[in-house]
Sequence to fold (439 residues):
Amino acid sequence: MRLEIAMENKIMRSSFVSASCLALAVSAVAAVPTAEVTSMAMESGNLVVNYTLSADAIVTAEVQTNITGTAAGGEFAPVAAEHFTRVEGDAFKVVSGGASKSFKWRACREMPDVTLPAGAVRVKLTVWPTNDAPDYLVVDMTATEPNGKFVVNYYPSVEFIPHGITNEMYKAAKFPMRRMRATGVEWQMGSWGEYNRSDSAASERAHLLTMDHDYYMAVYEMSIGHRAHLYGSNDNLDNTRPYKNCAYNIMRGVSHWPDSPASDSQLAILGAKLPFDLDLPSEAEWEFAARAGHGEERWGNGLPFTGGASDANLGKIAFFGGNNNSVSGGWSSGSAMTNIGTKASNDYGIFDMNGNARELTLDWYQADITWNHDGRPNASGFALADGITTRTDNDMIVAKGGCYATYAVGCRPANREILRPGDYTDHTGLRCVTRSIIK
Fold:
């Protein structure tokens, strides 16, 4: 549950504050942080908003204007996202509770040719509990907080992300993640034999599944640039090709879920620079995001499967063997992955879920996938359907999505590939998730 400061329509979750009404008291709701705006004014061309906050929360903001009217009437519209990128202070982040909170929007820099008369501007604040965060977060790997951790900003929708999520900065220097609202959603995992496959059997058999949690999924595969920023390298900072040759034992270490990634693993090193944990997605979490709400024989853009090799509908969202100088045998004569985000996203706003880099998951392979009905990873620490609770480097983990050289049949959301946890391949990458900031 979240609270937006309410004024004009008296709805608890919606509020607008105008320059003609500088203070607003908000009724308290149990367990939900509340805010009180104390002032709002234009100062040297900057819009400055001051407020108090009852408890730690995530605060997001929207500026609206009708340009020539007054805050009491007229048609208001949000300032376009491309003009709302220079916001500084206590907005779009976790804000500690207390008085004297403020943020500034550099209106004069972003809208230099527009005059905003007094009374023609209002601000909408939304207050989110820290355990029920907005739909998007962005890790800024070029900036740190006083505690040394990367800066994390939160946005209520993709439209709020400064400069647009397809901007190159998000493919190397910043790391966006999208909330998957999966709690209680019943959906079909696996398939009944897509593309007339006769070998799906229990390893891919369709079954209904309902997860008990939301999670954040990385919008992009981890790029070479992301990894370079993580380690403070001076090389490859702008490289937006997928980081490849990822081995499970290097990315997560020999620690198996539900334990956290090993302290010397790359996921733990990255997680130590964040205010939340990172991990690999479970097979079910990956497939839920890849399907993007679509079912049997549909790609994540909602279009149907059309063919076992090229599949033009897949080609709209994937760089794969069918559109990468394909040759017989299901592999491509192309020798490299392409930059992440080259193709369109799926309907959940996630890029490259199919093709480009094959992606690691958290699951150890088990031939009968139908044991899993709640999205748990098939990992050491649970009482597994096969009774095994100890894994070795000779066991197999599951990878998903196919790669730049895979034909469409191997890029299906239901398809499962296997590899040893210590294996390196030049077509295997990864995509991160976090579950720890949604309780």
Q: What stands out?
A: The CA atoms of residues 183 and 341 lie 27 Å apart.
